[in-house]
Design brief:
Layout (H helix, E strand, L loop, with lengths): L1 H28 L11 H4 L9 H16 L3 H9 L5 H12 L9 H15 L3 H7 L4 H4 L10 H4 L8 H16 L4 H18 L4 H18 L3 H18 L1
C-alpha cells in the first residue's frame, strides 16, 4: 500500500512538473499561433523573381533607387533607425505616431497584444525563407549596406520575404484596431519601414511587397484565435481608459 501511494505521489509530481514546463514554454513563446498554424506562403505566394526575368530587372532598378535615396541624409538616417527588428525597439518608433507611449509598465494590455501579435505574424516568414533561401541584394552585388554591423549575421539568411516589413505591417494593423484615428500615419510608417529595407540594401523590392501580403494574411488568421481576440479586447479597453 505504501509503495502504491509512493508511486502515485511520484507520478502526480511528474505530471505537475511536466505541465509546468509546458505552460512555461507557452508563456515564453509569446505567440498566439504556431508556425504550422499561420498561412503557408510556400503554397500560395509565387516564388521570388528569377535572375534574368523581367520582374528581377524591376528588383534591380529598385535596388539602385534605394542607393539614390541614401543621398538624402534624413531618409538615410531614418532607414538606419528602421533597421530595428526586436519588438522592444520597434514599438517605441510606432508609439510616436500611435499617440501614446506603449510599454509593459504603462500599457501592459496594449504591449502584450502588440508584442505577441507581431511575433505570431513574423512566423509566416519562416517557411518561405527556408524554402527559397534567396540571396540578398548586398550579397548579390557585393556592396556595403547602410548598416554594416548586420551584414555578417544576415548574409546567409534568406531574403524572401522581409521579416522587418512583415513585422512593421503587422504592427500597424494591430495598432490601427486600437486607434483608427491615426490609421494613415501608422500605415505610412509601416510602408516606409519596408522601403527602408530596400534603401539599406538588405532586401529586394519583391521581398518587401510579398511581406505585406503575408502580414495581412496572418493578421486575418489571428482573428480566429480566441486568446488574441480576448487580449485585443483588453487592449482596446485600456486604450479608451487612458485616452480619456
Amino acid at each position: 500500500m505504501k509503495k502504491t501511494n509512493h508511486f502515485l505521489g511520484v507520478l502526480m509530481l511528474a505530471v505537475w512538473m511536466l505541465s509546468g514546463i509546458v505552460l512555461h514554454a507557452q508563456e515564453s513563446a509569446h505567440i498566439y499561433l504556431t508556425a504550422d498554424e499561420v498561412p503557408n506562403a510556400v503554397y500560395w505566394l509565387p516564388t521570388p523573381p528569377a535572375p534574368g526575368s523581367s520582374q528581377f530587372l524591376y528588383d534591380i532598378s529598385q535596388y539602385y533607387w534605394g542607393k539614390e535615396q541614401r543621398n538624402d541624409t534624413v531618409r538615410a538616417q531614418k532607414a538606419i533607425r528602421e533597421a530595428a527588428y526586436e519588438n522592444v525597439d520597434m514599438i517605441p518608433i510606432f508609439s510616436e505616431v500611435f499617440g501614446m507611449e506603449i510599454s509593459e509598465e504603462k500599457t501592459p494590455a496594449i504591449y502584450k497584444v502588440v508584442d505577441w501579435g507581431v511575433e505570431t505574424i513574423r512566423l509566416s516568414a519562416t517557411a518561405p525563407k527556408e524554402a527559397h533561401n534567396r540571396i540578398r541584394p548586398y550579397v548579390y552585388f557585393n556592396e556595403p549596406t547602410l548598416v554594416p554591423e548586420d551584414e555578417e549575421e544576415l548574409r546567409t539568411n534568406g531574403s524572401y520575404p522581409s521579416g522587418h516589413a512583415i513585422k512593421a505591417w503587422g504592427m500597424a494593423m494591430i495598432l490601427c484596431e486600437l486607434n483608427p484615428d491615426v490609421q494613415d500615419e501608422l500605415f505610412k510608417l509601416a510602408y516606409e519601414y519596408g522601403q527602408s529595407r530596400v534603401i539599406t540594401g538588405f532586401h529586394w523590392q519583391s521581398d518587401v511587397n510579398a511581406s505585406r501580403l503575408l502580414a495581412a494574411a496572418t493578421y486575418a488568421r489571428l482573428h480566429t484565435c480566441k486568446e488574441y481576440l480576448n487580449d485585443l479586447e483588453k487592449a482596446q479597453k485600456e486604450f479608451k481608459k487612458l485616452k480619456k
